């Protein structure tokens, strides 16, 4: 049997630990978790608080219980074991870890963090007696215009108020103060300090001032991790330079100075290379080395600088969870080399948004893919793509499964493949994934069975859904304006699934809307608009030219989360989009006009379609229009018990920090090398 720490939640001052159990044999009635501190060999036993199902158990702990007064010990490193007392013998296994956390303050002078050792075993670290003069931040970066900081705004669940960032000049003790007014995610703040505010020829140090439970506190900002991957140099007009440095005590220095002149730069380069001829030879050597690496297409070696390849839906979009992760990486670690694998159709988007890219299926694409250290994708790479052993492949997947997938599909009817070939390719690809993101326990179990997957699962929620949790009403209004949707009208979104039987021949697909647009306009057209989100394979098969006054086709819009946010109601059938839309606690209608055909002749379902869905089911277009009218009159589903039962089962795990958790996972891999 294996036990894996798969999640940690905060609840009423306690830490709720979830463990995934694999290959469970026998009863868990006599099982418990044993925590053993590596240095003192102290031990703490905690009972299993709750068995969520046959392989997910929950244990409640209070982190305050895991440190104690002991001479010369301020760091406590707890290993976790599962003990199961059987009739004939006692089984003890060490718990593995899939959960890596940032540090969480217990008090001003203590914090805890969940981590893993070199063998992937879970560690619960507590540090006490830290200085009450220090405040840990998450990142610090220089952009072209600003000094940007991010950090947490809670201490053990208590919100920090009235935060201000202070840049203190070490030369004359002058101060620049900036209030914290923006948040990055739930529980995190972000601050931008204009670079033009930084005094010339100065060395400044960063501080924070805030109110906590009635006390005003001033602390020095520190960062424990290296500045690798973050942007630490900026150049201003007038040859002014600004750099970030980390002191030996983790403090952060902001230095402004006059940059070197052109003659000084040439002199420095010549001195380093012993003259102009040597400089030319150095350049030629580097070009030749690059050429040789290109020629040796087999046996690639990784880039010296950490490089991450992102891909979404086989390069057809720059979107979904990979894009959410990418944006956090660009904010926190812009110094890391990040490249998107795209189809040629996405070149314009990438250029407009300053995104580095490589076009798929080119020589350059092969070279970059093979030399990168990390792949982050939401779909499968072709089976002929070689994965080097130094690559960490993170699969975010693209939905909570409603329809059967992978090995669970008994009859594959997609063009260009057979059931046996589809199964074989699916398992082969899944076994290349080093880590697979899961949004909930339900999905974890399906991924294990349908993919034949036994590697690491990151049960953190889908990063793409962070936007649903962190976006405010003003930002939603801005998205509406950007999309050209009237602010004074309600929005109904129709997002049906792609059906395996919608292809006419290879490369050609068919689809017709299963309700009459004239009837919709007659019933709701005055104060409601309809937006369509069709599968990319069939989006071009629709003709809505006669309904442009109230129907918007956003099938090719890359960020579906924006469409969720502007919608007051979702209509779908078998698409997994409703699992994500439920985060908003807005009404969902189901219109399975071909339910029996789809269930019996196509893929089938994991859930009980009639009983487990979070909304009403319409059997025909007349019922659909009636249910739309009722749903628009009841926009908030938080008081609906059936809906909230669904929400708690499928959505509650996501705290709006999923993207950050994947970033932390990658950075842990980088810093562990």
From TrEMBL:
Q: Does the keyword rRNA-binding apply?
A: no
Keywords, in A-Z order: Cell membrane, Membrane, Teichoic acid biosynthesis, Transferase
> Which GO annotations describe the biological process of this protein?
teichoic acid biosynthetic process
Compartments in which it is found: Cell membrane
What are the GO cellular component annotations?
plasma membrane
For this protein, the record's Pfam families field holds:
Glyphos_transf
Question: Record's InterPro entries?
Answer: Glycerophosphate_synth, TagF_C, TagF_N, Teichoic_Acid_Biosynth
Q: Which family does it belong to?
A: Belongs to the CDP-glycerol glycerophosphotransferase family.
Which PANTHER family does the UniProt record give? TEICHOIC ACID GLYCEROL-PHOSPHATE PRIMASE, TEICHOIC ACID GLYCEROL-PHOSPHATE TRANSFERASE
The protein's name is CDP-glycerol:poly(Glycerophosphate) glycerophosphotransferase
Q: Lineage from the top down?
A: Bacteria, Bacillati, Bacillota, Bacilli, Lactobacillales
